[in-house]
Amino acid sequence: MALSCMRCPAGAAAASAPRAAAVGPAPAAAVSFTRCGFRRSAAAAAGCWRIQAVAPQGVKSPIDADVKNAVSPIAPPNVENGSPSEITLDEFEDLSALSKNDDSTVSITVVGASGDLAKKKIFPALFALYYEDCLPKACQYDSEEHFIDLDKKLKQHEGSRVSNRLFYLSIPPNIFLDVVKCASKSASSVNGWTRVIVEKPFGRDSESSAALTRGLKQYLVEDQIFRIDHYLGKELVENLSVLRFSNLVFEPLWSRQYIRNVQLIFSEDFGTEGRGGYFDSYGIIRDIMQNHLLQILALFAMETPISLEAEDIRNEKVKVLRSMKPLQLEDVVIGQYKSHTKGGTTYPGYTDDKTVPKDSVTPTFAAAALFINNARWDGVPFLMKAGKALHTKRAEIRVQFRHVPGNLYKGSFGTDLDRATNELVIRVQPDEAIYLKINNKIPGLGMRLDRSNLNLHYAARYSKEIPDAYERLLLDAIEGERRLFIRSDELDAAWSLFTPLLKELEEKRIAPELYPYGSRGPVGAHYLAAKYNVRWGDLSAEHYKA
Amino acid sequence: MAATALHFHRAAFLSPAHPRDAGAKWPLHHCSPHRIPVARRACFLRAKSLNGRPQIGASFGNTNEVRDGRPAGDGPQKEKGGSTVSITVVGASGDLAKKKIFPALFALFYEDCLPEHFTVFGYARSKMSDEELRNLISTTLTCRIDKRENCGDKMGQFLQRCFYQSGQYNSEEGFAELDRKLKEKEAGKLPNRLFYLSIPPNIFVDVVRSASRTASSSSGWTRFIVEKPFGRDSESSGQLTRSLKKYLAEEQIFRIDHYLGKELVENLSVLRFSNLVFEPLWSRNYIRNVQLIFSEDFGTEGRGGYFDNYGIIRDIMQNHLVQILALFAMETPVSLDAEDIRNEKVKVLRSMRPLKLDDVVVGQYKGHTRAGRSFPGYADDPTVPNGSVTPTFAAAALFIDNARWDGVPFLMKAGKALHTRRAEIRVQFRRVPGNLYRRNIGTDLDKATNELVLRVQPDEAIYLKINNKVPGLGMRLDRSNLNLLYSERYRGEIPDAYERLLLDAIEGERRLFIRSDELDAAWAIFTPVLRELEEKRVAPELYPYGSRGPVGAHYLAANYNVRWGDVNIDDDGSLF
């Protein structure tokens, strides 16, 4: 929220605004949200932007609590920076011109507005898009208990314009189908498009995922379903294809001939912190690997698509996924964090979380070795690692190259040539960066070699804030750009890689290796890597120094 | 005599491979400015490890005798059996000697890279006492910024080992007298002698004849470092080589090209051969063109007399730039041994087409007034003859007709009195075939290609220009640099090229020196065009002092569908 609203002068103030001020019925919320955009043009905002909160059918929570949650971050009662009188004439005309244009309209309905995600990501993202003039003409966010009423309200706002409707289902998976059914039957657009954004989890294995897809498809066609994977909206994940396909120097190296292994690493520096209930029935493999990491892997490894069109890219991704071997139990290491006391502070273990069953064997950490059985990648280990409550927060892709055949400088490297290989690192978060580790000579009279980085540090080069992944994805959904959303067949292919393993883990109740909260994770991950003659790039000696 | 020199050279060269050193822990860590005082011998392990020669030193029964370092302990009596190096700078009162050679020797001494026992002699015509020489050179000695402690003491110690001998350059008596004094300083140790000829080319042969006849080492090696110019065309160069070889064996001749001693030129081979990511790209399949760029931001400034006789092509291109080109383009050598590397360089040079007049643009700077200040033109230099057509700028397109490089233009550009001081290698890659992002790049796909830049001076750096996405919701592409800026990564001064080369000569490491056949091949590329330029008195295109040089260079590049990488706006933000 802070991230997005920082763009809005008053939004920043909003973060510290007294919560109480935001309490009120839905329409109040609407006004508040509008106000954030209001800074730019009082007139336009008043006429065109009305935002309300939705308590969808099937959700029983008290509506005022919902509203409070949904609204508090974006409800600045006091205006510190800028007031309507401060807007320039240009801005005024800008916005009023927009409001006059009335050929079509998009209504975005956030179903489950009270949830955490809606509060933290979706509303801020929508606002940021509005602030950057990325949204078309007008936006309504309406509150109804019944979708027929919602439809009426939407129609009211849409007027005679072509109506386009986007439903964002920010709700627990068990009510996905109910909502989709109601929405599609009663609140579909008659003359424009209707799209539904759904968030993970998309089932918990091949069967349940397929059942969900079949359920959705009773009411929607494939084109209407936008399965979001917010990692695909991250700047450097977007940049991955640009790097590969718009630079001559990378593509020739992008194969088993030059790449020794690829590492996809995700770590969080906090645990479930009292919210383990949902997590415990999924575990880290479903929560991170099967979707985020695997999606990045597919983008990384796919063949060159015919074009940048969504279907062309997704076709290639499906091909990669279908070329992969289902994951074997012996290629997986799982872990679970235990409590740890450091500097007088005690960090709770996973099973100390009150919402987690005491005897839970759900992994909060996993490392896995995957293989793609195609001509390009045969034999190249793709190592994944994901964990909670680790020592750092990080998401990165590391590409380790082979050693130089017949290296003339082998005398300068010592015995392990694999430790002096090139490595390309794409750091997705935090501090977006791309760097290539190269060997060079240490300046001086001798011939000592050194690994240095050829660097591109985003913060140093780009002063502009990098948009949140949700902004990109919401905008894409509004524009019908499906490139970053997951197609049903992609999802099926992804599940079929993980389902056998997940079943086996659960049937055998395999005990996770415990690791202390805030540590580097279970050492088993190193042994898994060693089995394939790989060394984790993020835990090498040079990183310990930093 | 040549045989003797060779024999002892090899022994000295291999001595570190003696079993006693087998357990030595510093195969390559020597003389690095980052090391705190290293054991002296470490400096001499370098050549061996570098070359990766088999450790056959043990088979040389007498290696102990020629060890450069001390055996153990420091007592003077124990040094009796050791060896000593005498470095004689012929032309000691000259500019180069003062500015470069003596300071480099001192830096080596400071870094503990000189042998325990060494002597420095100045030799020139003028009468001077030892003390006067010491005063003369002490003004130019400096300590590294990061190593000031003991600097004064070290300087004193160094100067105490500097001596002077006056004599004529063609006089055997003068060198005989030097020999007598050298023997005195060598104190019965195994004598190795290095002569640095810092003198005009017309007296090269006189000095080599006199010195080799009367001042060669009787039992150690004797080596001669010579500086450019090595002739002015194939014939004169060939003649000079023949003359030198009357008195010296090939192994004794160290033709210095100080550009080869520059840090990033040394690093060029490391980059190519120790990184997997570069070598696969190193061919006509991926590289569109290579640019070798040298510029100085000052003119001849009253010293045009020597220059006018040579011109920029001989002064910079035929040696420095063509040497870098050869290192860049050579096939992978069998090893890092000097002979292996030089063999590959010769092959590249011999695969090159002689330069044609059509592929050359020459320029000469003219006076220019800017902000009230006047900068003189080349012809305004009083030491330059009126009507001189000597180029102070040249651009050329060269081609290597071998399987790796067929059709790839190697563009060179060198000039004086330009807007900046710079030496760099730019490698422009081809465009991405079937680029998916072509719509984001605009019409000229060649403007969005990758480029690898090795900046040799100033501010040593390596960077690779890549295309990436501008962060944000759109899909705008941008060229950014993957950077390695030396000054950010490495503290401590980068040693001067002369230090490295002097040390190499002392150690008998010939990798960075130019062999006779290399020199011949280099001249063969340039001699026809030099002759044609002179015969036709081709008028150079005039360019203002401090400008970016004649625009003709752009048309030459355009002929080969190339764009100079150093004048793009994105590089320095503005055009002159």
From TrEMBL, chain A:
Listed GO biological process terms: glucose metabolic process; pentose-phosphate shunt, oxidative branch
EC category name: oxidoreductase
Sequence ranges assigned to domain Glucose-6-phosphate dehydrogenase NAD-binding in this UniProt record: 110-139, 140-239
InterPro entries: G6P_DH (IPR001282), G6P_DH_AS (IPR019796), G6P_DH_C (IPR022675), G6P_DH_NAD-bd (IPR022674), NAD(P)-bd_dom_sf (IPR036291)
Ranges where the Glucose-6-phosphate dehydrogenase C-terminal domain occurs: 242-536
Enzyme Commission number(s): 1.1.1.49
Keywords of this entry: Carbohydrate metabolism, Glucose metabolism, NADP, Oxidoreductase
Domain of life (superkingdom): Eukaryota
Known catalytic reactions: D-glucose 6-phosphate + NADP(+) = 6-phospho-D-glucono-1,5-lactone + NADPH + H(+)
SUPFAM superfamilies in UniProt: Glyceraldehyde-3-phosphate dehydrogenase-like, C-terminal domain (SSF55347), NAD(P)-binding Rossmann-fold domains (SSF51735)
Stored Gene3D superfamilies: Dihydrodipicolinate Reductase, domain 2 (3.30.360.10), NAD(P)-binding Rossmann-like Domain (3.40.50.720)
UniProt-recorded Gene Ontology molecular function terms: glucose-6-phosphate dehydrogenase activity; NADP binding
Pathway: Carbohydrate degradation; pentose phosphate pathway; D-ribulose 5-phosphate from D-glucose 6-phosphate (oxidative stage): step 1/3
GO cellular component, one term: chloroplast stroma
Alphabetical list of PANTHER family matching this protein: GLUCOSE-6-PHOSPHATE 1-DEHYDROGENASE 2, CHLOROPLASTIC (PTHR23429:SF11), GLUCOSE-6-PHOSPHATE 1-DEHYDROGENASE G6PD (PTHR23429)
Family according to the record: Belongs to the glucose-6-phosphate dehydrogenase family.
NCBIfam families: zwf
Functional summary from the UniProt entry: Catalyzes the rate-limiting step of the oxidative pentose-phosphate pathway, which represents a route for the dissimilation of carbohydrates besides glycolysis.
Protein's name according to its UniProt entry: Glucose-6-phosphate 1-dehydrogenase
UniProtKB/TrEMBL annotation, chain B:
Region feature (Disordered): 55-83
Superkingdom of origin: Eukaryota
EC number(s) per entry: 1.1.1.49
Protein known as: Glucose-6-phosphate 1-dehydrogenase
One Pfam family this sequence matches: G6PD_N
Function of the protein: Catalyzes the rate-limiting step of the oxidative pentose-phosphate pathway, which represents a route for the dissimilation of carbohydrates besides glycolysis.
Matching InterPro entries: G6P_DH, G6P_DH_AS, G6P_DH_C, G6P_DH_NAD-bd, NAD(P)-bd_dom_sf
Keyword Oxidoreductase among UniProt keywords: yes
Substrates-to-products reaction catalysed: D-glucose 6-phosphate + NADP(+) = 6-phospho-D-glucono-1,5-lactone + NADPH + H(+)
SUPFAM superfamilies given in the database record: Glyceraldehyde-3-phosphate dehydrogenase-like, C-terminal domain, NAD(P)-binding Rossmann-fold domains
Domain Glucose-6-phosphate dehydrogenase C-terminal: 270-564
Family classification: Belongs to the glucose-6-phosphate dehydrogenase family.
Residues in Glucose-6-phosphate dehydrogenase NAD-binding domain copies: 89-267
One GO term (biological process): pentose-phosphate shunt, oxidative branch
Keywords: Carbohydrate metabolism, Glucose metabolism, NADP, Oxidoreductase
Associated pathway: Carbohydrate degradation; pentose phosphate pathway; D-ribulose 5-phosphate from D-glucose 6-phosphate (oxidative stage): step 1/3
An annotated Gene Ontology molecular function: NADP binding
Biased composition (Basic and acidic residues): 65-81
Gene Ontology cellular component list: chloroplast stroma
Classification via PANTHER family: GLUCOSE-6-PHOSPHATE 1-DEHYDROGENASE 1, CHLOROPLASTIC, GLUCOSE-6-PHOSPHATE 1-DEHYDROGENASE G6PD
